Amino acid sequence: MARKTSRSIRYADLNADDNAETRRLIDAGSRLAEEVARLFPPEPDMADRHYWLEAMINHVPDYIYAKDTAGRFLIANEVTVADNGLESLRDLVGKTDFDLHPHEFAQAVADTERRVLETGEPIFGIEERAIVTKDRDRWLMTSKVPLRSKSGRIIGIVGISRDISDRKAAERLLEGQARLLEMIANGKPLGEFFHELVLLIEALLPGIKGSILLLSEDGRHLLHGAAPSLDAGFCAAIHGLEIGPAAGSCGTAAWCGEQVIVSDVFADPLWEEYAPLLRPSGLRSCWSTPILSRERKVLGTFALYAQEVGTPSEQQQELIAMAAHLAGIAIERKRAEDRIGFMAHHDALTGLPNRVLFEEQVAGMLEEIRERDQWAVLAFLDLDDFKLINDSLGHATGDELLKIVAGRMRAAVRRSDSVVRVGGDEFIILLNGLPKERDVVLSRLEDIRTAIAMPVQLQGRSLQVSCSMGVACFPNQGKTAGELLANADMAMYRAKELGRNNIQVFTEEMAARAHEKLQSQEELREALAREEFLLHFQPQMSLETGRIFAAEALLRWQHPVRGIISPAAFIPLAEETGLIVPIGDWVLRTACRQLKAWQDAGLPPLIVSVNVSARQFRERNWAARVAAVLEETCLEARYLELELTESLIMQDVPGAIATMHALEAIGVHLAIDDFGTGYSSLSALKRFPVRRLKIDRSFVTDIPHDADDMAITSAIISLAQKLGLRVIAEGVETEAQVEFLQKSGCGEIQGYFFSQPLPGEDFEVLLSSERR
């Protein structure tokens, strides 16, 4: 049946079977030869040429014809006659396309031929749809040239058309594949992609209808994907179809993971339950192929339905395989995108939303609360002593604990609430829409804290983990998500300071303290840049000689407004912020430079003692940095003593010993400061390459009034002597303390009894007077 699909022309099928009517065609060929002879009288011995010409063009499967200037057929080969629906050339000669085809198609042909007649220019290789399709989409490549008389006058046109339907189908397939792959690359929705894929296959296979079904997450049901040409009622009826060994073509294919071809749905037992659903559509056969992942796991099915009973041809099988493959690529790409999107917005370990997703959603949640007379409560919590669990039981156990805690928090909140893992052992809980009652809020949070603290069995042992929680309420204690987080974070650190395992609600006092801390931090950083630090030196005296043999370098901050600030006021902040490392480097360099200057000035030789912070000591290649300072200041290593605290050393005994040996190799002396206040073991102490122990002032202060302090001090002195170590007592202020230390065998003291810490100039004067 003729139909217009473009402004191009349709012609009849090229593949007519000329063997079916051999006799008729022979007679027609004879008549054609007679007609040619009448129109173009043959020259002598031209009759044979006309015969062979007629035989030749009748064996060509292309359309070959000639028309006069009025568009009337003059001659044509047999396939042209047959495909125009006529029996003989006699029926065609003298007729125009307007006599044979609908006006709109004939007019398109006439317009093309008129252009050739008027311009005398041939037209080569135009692609056009065939007018007669014979139930399939057919394309022709047509060329038309002017037909001229012997004198050169144009008396008509000669045309030839070749069937290029297969090539056009291949081109359409390639274009469709490219378009589909582009849709995959651009992340188009799966439904849109499936719709386009099915339409492409249906365009290549007229009369065939396609369907895509997707396997559900539980792997038990098929869900509607796309079926643009199938009856909507049928699609709705099979949506949610349970797969199995006798569940139609698609349900069975998904169940067994192999292609299922049913040539007649009304005769196949696989369709016994579903055939009535398909009867109104007139479809008879269904061929279903599983859509597989790269790991050969079933993702869904691709099916074709035909109105005729039968099985797919080789061409149809190729298109089915191609469509199923493309569908598998699209599904896997979409799942990969979903996984990436999930990972970008969720914590990989616990599955909780992460901070990125929280920040994307929280603004909208707060805006909704703003419209209601309620609170949004943000709690920032940190698990107490989680690092200890990680270090002692391993990261795998720590991860398992985090997953359990995350599950408990999720179970303890409502659907409208949010639980977010910020990182490590820190979490955010947002309770969305609570009454503006402090007791209600705290009660809800206590329930969550109690759930977290329930015992858990890991590695055959029962563990309990508590949490410290800081709370800020919207809108009273923060108008934005950023303010709420910052304030809840401050409250959480306050909970840590108060002994952990408690809840603290944000207050303005916390904000003021945090602001003051931030300001102090900035001032400390500026002090380092402006060189506001200075050193005082406290002499260390030998009780045997009564002379100064060493000095401890003590840091001071010369604040431009507050004057001299004791290290006790800023060293903890410097430790917390990491500024202690550059400050400590400055102290070491300045002390070494000062001692070298005194030596160059001819003052008595002595040792300078410098305190080392834990952050400094853990710095990579710290021994090499000390060596560099000694080289820079030209000070011999034997004049430098570094004081290390017990707690610093015991954090990582093997690492500390390695660093201490590296310092010893340089020639630097080592001392343990504040001995007796830490938790060093005797077994570890004997391995430390130290020269001196410093008795902490806390044991000296109450001597001779406190018998316990006297006993401890005596024990430390005795221990040092047995280990071959020198011992020095700090904080010595009275004659009685000096007498006790001398009797106990302590040979060195430091404290106000002899001298308070002095500025460099005053200490130099003291040294000069001692020399005199």
UniProtKB/TrEMBL annotation:
This is Diguanylate cyclase/phosphodiesterase. It comes from the Bacteria. It catalyses: 3',3'-c-di-GMP + H2O = 5'-phosphoguanylyl(3'->5')guanosine + H(+). GO terms for molecular function: cyclic-guanylate-specific phosphodiesterase activity. SMART domains: EAL, GAF, GGDEF. InterPro entries: Biofilm_reg_signaling, Diguanyl_cyclase/Pdiesterase, EAL_dom, EAL_sf, GAF, GAF-like_dom_sf, GGDEF_dom, Nucleotide_cyclase. Pfam families: EAL, GAF, GGDEF, PAS_4. Gene3D superfamilies: 3.30.450.40, 3.30.70.270, EAL domain, PAS domain. Residues 124-176 form the PAC domain. One of its GO terms (biological process) is cellular response to nitric oxide. Residues 517-771 form the EAL domain. Residues 374-508 form the GGDEF domain.
